[in-house]
């Protein structure tokens, strides 16, 4: 078993691809075992993070969740592993399909992230602030201000533009799938010796036939309208007995509230 962060595996490889509408967004993680999002309200929170390749065409590399007031929540590793600067990154919000329903690419105003720990994979969370002109964009996903244990959340789903199968192209279509949050014990038993430390603000979800996959890094796990988790890493996609690992948003709310 090896662990993989669920973002584009190599931006350098992607930048060498010849641009085509069907292939400008390659090797990213999409929702496994889900369905296309048709609900316009749910699309309000849909975020695709993109960089331009050498021919100037956008490529999706990570997801995120728009939480209103011009703020996006994503994963720290999306921004730090390849050392992306804010002037290199654009975001697309609200697209049903990145190929067929492209929305305006928005530049980034600010990036805030905690120091991502490459050993424990903790602190895998970041905030992106949009320019002032976009602070009035409506959102429909809230932040978990109340300290509820993550295992008590129900009615949860994961969202993203990533692959529907391990090491395949991204779907480009915004998708969702229902998912169940695992207890710390179940997570530890499933992911020995790579289980996350729930006390460091991480948790497991899935382990059945629904999962996040390449290109879904930074995307949201949402329960009853609250952003509970951020896609971080996993050993595969949609393999029974192998849950994915998520950053616990509530664990980082003190930091988030200071910035927002």
UniProtKB/TrEMBL annotation:
Residues 31-260 form the Peptidase S1 domain. One of its GO terms (biological process) is proteolysis. GO terms for molecular function: serine-type endopeptidase activity. It comes from the Eukaryota. One of its GO terms (cellular component) is extracellular space. InterPro entries: Peptidase_S1_PA (IPR009003), Peptidase_S1_PA_chymotrypsin (IPR043504), Peptidase_S1A (IPR001314), Serine_Proteases_S1 (IPR050127), Trypsin_dom (IPR001254), TRYPSIN_HIS (IPR018114). Keywords: Hydrolase, Protease, Serine protease, Signal. Gene3D superfamilies: Trypsin-like serine proteases (2.40.10.10). CDD domains: Tryp_SPc. Residues 1-23 form the signal peptide. Belongs to the peptidase S1 family. CLIP subfamily. This is Putative trypsin-like serine protease. It comes from Lutzomyia longipalpis.
